[in-house]
Automatic annotation (TrEMBL):
Belongs to the glucose-6-phosphate dehydrogenase family. Pathway: Carbohydrate degradation; pentose phosphate pathway; D-ribulose 5-phosphate from D-glucose 6-phosphate (oxidative stage): step 1/3. Catalyzes the oxidation of glucose 6-phosphate to 6-phosphogluconolactone. Keywords: Carbohydrate metabolism, Glucose metabolism, NADP, Oxidoreductase. The keyword Signal does not apply. Residues 211-506 form the Glucose-6-phosphate dehydrogenase C-terminal domain. This is Glucose-6-phosphate 1-dehydrogenase.
Amino acid sequence: MSQWRNPLRDKRDKRMPHIAGPCAVVIFGVTGDLARKKVMPAIYDLANRGLLPANFALVGFARRDWSDEDFAKLVFDSVKDHARTPFRQEVWDRLAEGIRFVQGTFDDDKGYERLAESLDKLDAERGTGGNHAFYLSIPPNAFPVVCEQLKKSGLANKREGSWSRVVIEKPFGHDLQSARELNSVVNSIFPEESVFRIDHYLGKETVQNILALRFANELYEPIWNNNYVDSVQITMAEDIGLGGRGGYYDGVGAARDVIQNHLLQLMALTAMEEPVNFGPGDLQAEKIKVLSATQVMQPLDQTTARGQYVAGWQGSSKVVGLLEEEGFSKDSTTETYAAIALEIDTRRWAGVPFFLRTGKRLGRRVTEIALIFKRAPHLPFDKTMTEELGQNALVIRVQPDEGITTRFGSKVPGSAMEVRDVNMDFSYGSAFAEDSPEAYERLILDVLLGEPSLFPVNREVEFSWEILDPVLEYWASHGKPDSYESGTWGPSSADEMLHRMGREWRRP
Ligand SMILES: NC(=O)c1ccc[n+]([C@@H]2O[C@H](COP(=O)([O-])OP(=O)(O)OC[C@H]3O[C@@H](n4cnc5c(N)ncnc54)[C@H](OP(=O)(O)O)[C@@H]3O)[C@@H](O)[C@H]2O)c1
């Protein structure tokens, strides 16, 4: 941890970027979607921004019979197609010098021996210093075997004065039991401080801005509690369906895919207390406290809803239902929409329901956190003058159109004292000149810098499953999801769920 720097208390010149030290990144699963569309382009973008060391090395490990040049071509294509920043030949040429390929399958000892040789050579020739990050962009069932092999080949052991880290992509298990098993295997090989679990939502600027909004201002924190907040709605809505992703999604569903990780992380950041500091473990400690105090409200038939999309219209296109999508069995009960109501047993949040929902083929692509405030205890206006006044709201728009909206009542111009809702808006696009980096740029750089704050630790993952497991078990033993038409905002059972609690879903 010697090179860890507290980003909030850093006294260095803030114009000096944090540049990673000498190191090599080894990617497993280089031909996969994630590696090609996100990980490798983000590495190029970091190089382009001058945040990687000149002697950086990138090693691909895959079962193809490829040369270094073949792999470099794959990286080149993925950079050309998906990098955020402009292509610059000199940046590419420098990056390409450190690109190597090692052929092997996940369980083949010889492949890992070749990998160890290649890394030793890079350490000697390019001075990568024995610092290695192993990025597992592979099917989740292969995490244990690759970790075991890294141990067997000695690659998991950091040498004196160097580091060895493993990066794991979600899903971290499919229930509490499997998450515990996975954590136990991973932690028997890599100490927790060397394990970087990626929930890419935590790398988003708008998500980190929750911390700035809450803890760098005096305006919001005094009202951020059950004295003023009526309820919280956290939404991740997608307008796309599951064409082409059947194999991965069938049997997983919306709750496991999104609520267990992204939405519970957003909830934890929204509900947690102020961390003592932003040092290693401080942020996670506060999130752990919230997650350990959270449970799904009861009874589950009233406080949860799930749905599966059927054919409908997405904008001007006619789209098919889930069961007609390729890769789904005709009797699949996988939910594409999930909503749950949570309670957090703390002094700050007692009595405030947190509603989490996510779905595919909904009306619009949007992720937001909305704090809905209580109504004013008394309105000294004629009742007819406040008919269009709703509840005040603070909405953090995570994506797209990143920003923050405050909704409050304002007098309508004219002689009557009519009051109606208006919005006050902050938008990243107009407030800042520079574009936000991609979440993967920030997270990969943090891995290389050894800054762990934005990565969920094993206990967070386990508490999240502990919250969700009862819902998954209840759904598994209670028939099929309700249907909802594509392009709408989910099944009617989700609306009824909120009506029963005297609330309504926002229509973002
Ligand atoms: N895609 C996303 O946006 C996304 C988002 C969040 C999390 N994730 C997670 O990230 C991981 C990777 O996702 P993905 O979408 O990139 O998966 P993917 O497209 O299925 O790619 C999997 C990769 O693993 C390799 N592989 C599979 N079995 C192998 C074996 N036995 N030996 C050697 N290589 C093997 C594949 O190589 P071959 O080409 O040789 O088959 C491929 O490169 C998964 O854990 C996923 O859940 C993905």
